[in-house]
Amino acid sequence: MSVLGNYDNWKNFLKERVQQAKAVGISDEAIAKFAYEIGDFLDEKVSPKNGPEQALKELWDVGSEQDRQTIARLMVKLVEKG
């Protein structure tokens, strides 16, 4: 099953990648930048498959670049807390 097929799978995948990045010493800022790039890629290439993904896409689409950076940082924080 693809990590993009289910919102919880996506969050778990992102959480594991964030943990791995921190374990090898990648900075929070670099992680946030990468999360932003992933968000931009997903917005352009992947159709939302459920309510949470649709909400994130709509927020991403109406947001400025700064808003999108904030969304990316919040997603990283969300998976770190969960």
Explain this structure to me?
- This protein has 82 residues and is an all-alpha fold.
- The protein has a domain at 27-82.
- Helix content is 78%, strand content 0%.
- It has four helices and no strands.
- The longest helix is centred in the middle third of the chain and has 18 residues, at 28-45.
- The radius of gyration is 12 Å and the shape is globular.
- 7% of the residues are buried.
- It holds the Pfam family DUF3243.
- This is DUF3243 domain-containing protein.
In short:
This protein is mostly helical. It has helices spanning 7-23, 28-45, 51-62, 65-81.
Structural class by sheet pairing and helices: mainly alpha
Distance between the termini: 22 Å
Report Rg.
12 Å
Mean pLDDT: 90
* SS element count, helices: 4
SSE string = HHHH
Low-confidence stretches: none
Number of strands: 0
Please indicate the percent range of residues in DSSP E strands (runs of 2 or more): under 5%
Oligomer status = single chain
Note the overall shape.
globular
Q: Biggest sheet: strands, sense, closure?
A: none
Helix fraction?
over 70%
Task: Describe the protein's topology.
Blueprint (H helix, E strand, L loop, with lengths): L6 H17 L4 H18 L5 H12 L2 H17 L1
Helix pairs in contact: 1-4, 2-4
Protein name: DUF3243 domain-containing protein
InterPro entries: DUF3243 (IPR021637), Uncharacterised_YmfJ (IPR024702), YmfJ/YflH_sf (IPR038292)
Organism: Paenibacillus selenitireducens
Descriptive tags:
YmfJ/YflH_sf, mainly alpha, DUF3243 domain-containing protein, DUF3243, 82 residues, Uncharacterised_YmfJ, 4 helices
